[in-house]
């Protein structure tokens, strides 16, 4: 009986090492694939405040651009009707997307309240609180 238990322990250890070897090989191959095919850089875009307390403020977009009253947002709005962390513009699937961050007053895209993330196109109008922002792509710059 002791020999059977010893054999089962060796078999279990061998299976464990085999599993770890396969997992590490898959991770290494994925890393190599991403080195050869880096994900595309985001297309340059800009948010410009057209109306509201911060009119004429304009910022270039980062891959993740947060908007709201808090100081840790990329675009900080001095709008009493904007939430602390109100909305987010992010680069995903080769497109710019707008997402509401469960704000109290909602985020509007071209007059429609967002209920799920929406793709942005150049010239879109966003309403956050009492502020109206314009989303534009920089057509002159290529990535």
Textual characterization of the structure:
This protein is α+β, with helices and mostly antiparallel strands and about 140 residues long. The protein has one helix and eleven strands; from the N terminus they run αβββββββββββ. The protein has one helix at about 1-35, and strands at about 45-50, 60, 65-70, 75, 85-90, 95-100, 105-110, 110-115, 120, 125-130, 130-135. The strands form two sheets. Strands 2-1-11-10-7-8 form a six-stranded antiparallel beta sheet, with no helix packed on it. Strands 4-3-5-6-9 form a five-stranded mixed beta sheet, with no helix packed on it. The longest helix has about 35 residues, at about 1-35. The protein is elongated, with a radius of gyration of 24 Å. The N and C termini lie far apart (about 70 Å). The mean pLDDT is about 90.
Which features would summarize this protein structure in a list?
143 residues; alpha+beta; 1 helix; 11 strands; elongated
What is the element layout, followed by pairings?
Blueprint: H1 2-36, E1 45-51, E2 58-60, E3 64-68, E4 75-76, E5 87-92, E6 95-100, E7 107-109, E8 112-113, E9 118-119, E10 125-128, E11 131-137
Parallel strand pairs: 3-4
Antiparallel strand pairs: 1-2, 1-11, 3-5, 5-6, 6-9, 7-8, 7-10, 10-11
């Amino acid at each position: 009986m002791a020999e059977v238990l010893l054999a089962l322990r060796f078999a279990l250890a061998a299976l464990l090492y085999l599993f770890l070897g396969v997992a590490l090989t898959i991770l290494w191959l994925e890393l190599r694939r991403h080195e050869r095919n880096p994900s595309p850089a985001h297309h340059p875009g800009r948010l410009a405040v057209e109306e509201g307390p911060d009119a004429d403020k304009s910022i270039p977009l980062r891959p993740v651009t947060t908007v709201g009253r808090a100081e840790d947002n990329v675009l900080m709005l001095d709008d009493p009707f904007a939430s602390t962390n109100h909305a987010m513009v992010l680069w995903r699937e080769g497109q710019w997307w707008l997402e509401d961050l469960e704000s109290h007053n909602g985020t509007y895209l071209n007059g429609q309240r967002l209920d799920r993330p929406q793709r942005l196109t150049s010239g879109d109008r966003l309403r956050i609180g009492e502020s109206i922002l314009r989303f534009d792509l920089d057509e002159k710059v290529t990535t």
